[in-house]
Every structure is written in C-alpha cells, then in structure tokens.
Amino acid sequence: MSEDRTHVQEFFGARAADWDRKFPGDGPAFTTAVTEFGLRPGDRVLDAGCGTGRAMTALRAAVGPGGTVLGVDLTPQMLAAARRAGRDAEGALLLADVARLPLRDEVLDAVFAAGLIAHLPDPGANLRELARVVRPGGGLALFHPIGRAALAARHGRELTPQDMRAEHNLGPLLSGSGWDMASYADDDDRFLVLAVRRP
Fold first, then answer.
1. Nearest Cα to Cα of residue 91 among 77, 112, 75
2. How far is 9 from 75, CA to CA, in rounded Å?
3. 142 DSSP β-pair partners
4. What angle do CA 60, 170, 82 make, to 5 degrees?
5. What gap in Å lies between CA 110 and CA 62, rounded to an integer?
6. 35: number of Cβ within 10 Å
7. What is the pLDDT of residue 1?
8. Distance from the Cα of residue 128 to its chain's centroid
9. CB 75 within 8 A of CB 5
10. pLDDT by residue (tens digit) across 134-183?
11. What mean pLDDT, rounded, does the chain reach?
C-alpha cells in the first residue's frame, strides 16, 4: 500500500502544475457528468481523488450554498494547483487517502470520482470505504472525460476483457462493495457509471 501511495503521489505530483493546461477542454464534460449525477441543493458531496479540483465548481453549483463540497486528494501538489486555480472557494480541500477517509460513517449524500478507480490499490476495499461514508440510498459517480477505448488509445494500449472498468467487471466489483450499478455509459467522449449505496 505504501509503495502504491508513493507511486501515485510521484506520478501526479510531477504533473500537477500543468494538469489543467494539458486537458483544457474537459470542463464541459465534468459539468455534464455532475448534472447527470442528479445532486440536489443541500447535498453533502465528496470529490474523491479531486486532483486540481476540476469538478468542484460544478459540484458547488449542484448542491448550492447550503450544500457541502469536500475535495480529497493524496497528492499535495494537486491540491496546491487547485488552490492556485481558486477552487478552494467552492469547497474544502483535504490531503487524505480515499482508502482511509477521516470521515464518519454515512455522513455524505454522494461521492464523485473522476479518473480515480484505475489508481486504487485495492478497488474492492476502497469502494467499500467510499460506501462507508455515504448514507444508504446515496450516490456514486465514476467518471472520466473520455471513454475506455479513447483512453487506451491515448496510452498506446489495447482494451482487454480484464479491464476493471468494463461493465462485466465493474458491476460485480461495485455489487461486492456495497453499491448497486444504476447506469453505465462508455462513449468516446465520456465514461460515466452511476451507482447507489445499498441499504
């Protein structure tokens, strides 16, 4: 686990300063995904693995001034970039590991996770940890601004049946972690899976 944490911190820490400039066109995809997530005014939402906080403006707009937005990331440089971009005005930013969240049980209404699942060292246990902090009936959104095939092409690799984000793999993984998959979309221009926290 410590080696995985260190690798993630090194990988994203080295890229944090240029992250937003590298993906300048992703904003509308984040906004659309948050809209489809169906958050309500007053909701308490966690942006898990928030990076530079690209979802936080849309999350704040969805939950309104009476809601709570918390961004959590493992990489200090990513959080620093989020603050430089002014995204800490949309919610609190916290340096923490989503595998061990410093939050009470069932304190949240929803978790939004952009690009997170591929970087979880123990996806089943880590998804259970996200379920722990969400109330029964609350939501989970697993998002990426491009689909699996486009992402694989970007990284010069082929999709395989073993891909964790494939529907036939992700459904049982979510189910075994306290979530019921509600919808699955894997298009060229976005990947969005919505799930509901099981009672």
1. 112
2. 5
3. 113, 193
4. 30
5. 12
6. 12
7. 33
8. 14
9. no
10. 999 999 999 999 889 888 888 788 888 889 999 999 999 999 999 999 99
11. 92
